[in-house]
Amino acid sequence: MNNVTSLFSSLWQDYITRxxxxxxxxxxxxxxxxxxxxxxxxxxxxxxxxxxxxxxxAPFLAIGYKACETYDFEAKKLKAQHFEHPDPNAxxxxxxxxxxxxxxxxxxxxxxxxxxxxPAHYFATSDFLSAGRPWALSFEEYQILAKxxxxxxxxxxxxxxxxxFTVYVNQLEAFAEVVDxxxxxxDAGFAMNEVGGEVKGSPEVYLEQSxxxxxxxxxxxxxGEFDIPGGFYEFAKxxxxxxxxxxxxxVAASADKIFESTDS
Length: 264
Description:
Pfam families: HGLS. Helix content is 31%, strand content 23%. The protein has helices at 3-19, 23-31, 53-61, 105-116, 139-148, 150-158, 178-187, 252-258, and strands spanning 40-46, 66-73, 78-84, 92-98, 164-168, 200-202, 207-211, 216-221, 224-229, 232-238.
């Protein structure tokens, strides 16, 4: 098993166990028994020195990934960057970070206190990427964060892990269009993210995306267990650029709406 396969295998196991238990069923519904190609994963973090975007990028850079485009999400107070591997079959990686300094003082204080609980050496190996939450959190704190930023509350509650995996629609034999995938999943009882339309993007921007709404999962807080939104499954269809190459970037306007798949 090579380094890329090994890292994504750990991320997948954590994702289907802890964050998106329904992902296995979605996988089954779309795969026809074949292996699905994962277009990309997304990871979330805070933009603080110890845990910032570059900390999450380091394990990927160490196995050959290269930093590509950056993205700004001003309304959500996020910055993001995507990473690509020289092997075109390796999944893309999308890492975002919330700009803590732009949040209210109360929210900033909670986030700083969480991050202070984590020793710097915690991030020395890639294991942390699928290890969940490295800090203690109360449900009361989670609720305070959620009032201001769904992203911040999700990250505080779940810690590190793949927010979503993404089926590469181009490879599917049974479905040519994202809208067909959506209907198949809806027929099977899955709720789809309708924010900004059920399909985000278009052939004109070389990318179409859709996603399920996040599973509700049980998470432990200092007061006990509560059900909150976990991970979701995304679907992406990519189009060829004028030069004939498949587009490998992301569309900020579409990603902005995909973030809302974890809204409660």
